[in-house]
Known about the structure:
disordered N terminus; eight-stranded antiparallel beta barrel; 8% helix; 62% strand; rod-shaped; Porin; mainly beta; 2 helices; 335 residues
Amino acid sequence: MSKSLRLLALAAALNIAVAATATAQTIIVRGAKPGERVEVMINDSPANSGTVAADGTATVAGNVPAPDTRRPEMDARLYLDACDNMRRVLVVDRNQLPVPAPVGCARTEITGIYWVRQRSTIVIDVSKPIPDVLLRQGAYNPNAPVRRMAPKGLIAFGGGGLAKTSDTTAIACGDVLDCEGDGYAGAYHVGATFWITRWIGVEGNYLRPSKMVVVGNGGSFTFSNRLDVDFISVVAKAGLPIGPVRVFGQGGMTYHEARDTMTETIGQGSQTIETHTDGWSYTFGGGLEGWISDRFALYGEAGVTKMKGKERLSEVIQIDDKLTHYMVGVRVRVF
C-alpha cells in the first residue's frame, strides 16, 4: 500500500513539473536602455520582472494561460507601457480589458491578435517608434547569427566563359576533308535580374562569343569562314533559395545579329562574301549563385541559345544553329 502511495505521489510531482514547464513562457524585450526594469503581466496576474542587460535585452518568464484560466492557449492582445526607467508588457486575452496604465506611463497597443500557446516566445523590439513583435513557438535566441538568404530586388551581373555552336564548322566545311574549326570559344555576358520574390524573377542580358573561325583547304583553293554574333535575351527565372545559395532555371526569347564572312582564295585571286542575319528564337538554361555577403555573389550557369533567322536583304540565306554556353561571374545587388 505504501509503495502504491509513493508511486502516486511521484506521478503527481512529475505531472506538476511537466505542467509548470509546459506553461512557462518567455517574453524578450530588445532595444531597451541597459539597467531599465521590465515587467510582464498576463491578463491581471501579478507582474514578473527582470532587468535590461548591457546588450539592451531583457528576458522575463511568464505563464500563459494565466493561473486563473484552464485553457492551453489564448488569442491575445499586446500592450506596452513606457515609464521612467521601467517598461511593462501586457499579454491580455482578446475578450478582456487590460489593467489601467500606471500614473506617468504611456501605453501603446501593438496592432494584431496573437495566438499565444503554452510554449510561445514573444520578442518585442522597442528600439523603434512602433515596436516590432516576433511570436515564435518554441525557444528563441535573440543573439543567434542571422542566416544570410539569397536576396530579392535588382541584381546586376557580369561574367565570362566558353561557348560553342553546333553546326558552324560542319556547314562551312561542307565536303572538304582538310577543314577544321574552333572548338569552344571565349564569351562574355552582362545583364540585370529583378527578383520579384526570392523565387520568381525576370532578366535581360547581352551575350557575345568571340569570333568563331573555320579554315579549310580543298587542294585547288583555300577558304576561311568567320562568324561574329551578338545575342540579346529576355527570360523568366524560377529559383529555389537554400539559405545564401539559389538554384535557378530560366527560359525566354532571344534576338541575334550575326555577320558571316567567307573568304575564298584560288591561286592569286580571292573573293569575300559577307552575309548578315538576324531573328528571334528561344533560349533556356540554369545554374546556381552563392551569396558571400549581402551585396556580392558568385555564380555559374549553363544554357542553350537558338540562333535562327534570315539574311537581312534577300531573306534567301538562312541561319539555323544553336549556341551552348557555360559562364561564371559576379553578381552585385543594386537594391
